[in-house]
Amino acid sequence: VAHYGCGCPSPEGGRIWILARDSGAIVGRIGRPGSATGEFLSAHSIGLDSKDNVYVGESPQGRRTQKFVKVSQ
Predict the structure, then answer these.
(1) Mean local confidence (pLDDT), 2-19
(2) pTM, to two decimals
């Protein structure tokens, strides 16, 4: 779930929440508010590819797409 927030660095937005499908519980997150790599000003769109990489588009303030690569633990 992309939490859009206000389009500015704030505690309310700038995160991608990972939810359990069955319960809706938050099980993880990606990013934090900000304009650096791995941060979001305006997380707006989200997509996955066949390798489970996550793509996050930002608009209007961020004006970029970031790719997050799945790593094994």
Answers:
(1) 67
(2) 0.76
